[in-house]
Structures are given as C-alpha cells and as structure tokens.
User: What shape does this take?
Amino acid sequence: MAMDPRAALRAAISVPGMPRDHDGPVFREPWEAEAFAMTLALFERGLFTWAEWAEALGAEIKRAQAAGDPDTGETYYTHWLNTLEGMVARKGIADQAMQHEYRDAWEHACERTPHGQPIELQSDDFK
Assistant: This one.
C-alpha cells in the first residue's frame, strides 16, 4: 500500500538537520529539490523504509563530518544525494557505474539542448 504523499513529506522533513523554514524543506538549487523528490518517490514505491533512509543519511553525514565537513548545512543535500545513490546501488536498482553513465548522458544532453527546450536522452548521449 502506497503512503499518502503528505505523510511521506512529513516523514521526510522530520529528518534531523534538514534545511527548512516554517513551510517545509528549503532548497538552494533545483537539483536539491529533485534529489528530495526522487527519494520520496522511491520511498513511496517501497524501495526502503523511512527508518532505513534516516539511518543511512545519518551515517553518511557522520562519515562526512569525520572527513572534515564543517556541517554548516550547505552540504546537507550533497550528503542526501550520496545517500540516495548508495541506497539505489545497495538495493540493486543501478550500480555506481550505471548511475555515472546516466549522469554523464544527461550532462551531454543538457549541453546540446537549446535553453528552454525539453531535454531528451538520445543514444548518442551515452558515448
């Protein structure tokens, strides 16, 4: 049974350390909102539980802090994205190599697409 999207959002914004204002999460860049939305979509599809997500994100943040991250909040969504990529790989959805291949393809597609036009992947983007 799928979780109510409002309940998923409430669960997501309950994660400690998430940048937020009185209305909910705060995103400085579009990719941060996209990573957040992808995480909620995968959670709603049952890829992981919210407790599993919170534990993985907390571990990622602790690793970053141990490596010298100043934990000022500016890198929060970098940790979020790293956690998402790791979760997708651990769950067997797409390994790191496939994720990098698609990231590179999307970057290529973005570079060749005129501003304001829809970005569409083509086979040449994977070369």
Q: What stands out?
A: The two ends are 40 Å apart (CA to CA). The beta strands are 20-21, 24-25. The chain has a mean pLDDT of 86. The longest strand covers residues 20-21.
